[in-house]
Amino acid sequence: GNMVRITQDQGVNTDPCWSPDGRYIAFVSRRKGHGKKIWLSSSDGRWQFPITKRSGGYSTPRWGK
User: Fold this and answer.
1) pLDDT digits (tens, 9 = 90+) for 6-45
2) Distance CA 30, CA 38 (A)
């Protein structure tokens, strides 16, 4: 397949992890005004939002069973 960037110009984004069904990506991001949080994105990047309320030392998100 082709590689598509979904976090263009939106802070420092690391540790992406695909959902088991391939519809979502969880990742760690340090974005302006939000600090370091875990974010969730649709696979096409059309929507993204933080899923942790507080900033913290988050790293390497994993999907549960």
Assistant:
1) 887 778 899 999 999 999 999 999 987 778 999 999 999 9
2) 9
d(CA 3, CA 49): 22
Question: How far is 54 from 51, CA to CA, in rounded Å?
Answer: 9
Q: Return the closest-CA partner of residue 16 out of 52, 62, 47.
A: 62
- Contact (CB, 8 A) for 47 and 6: no
* pTM score, whole prediction: 0.85
Given a contact cutoff of 8 angstroms between Cβ atoms, the answer to whether 12 and 33 are in contact is no
The helix/strand count (H/E) of the chain reads as: 0, 4
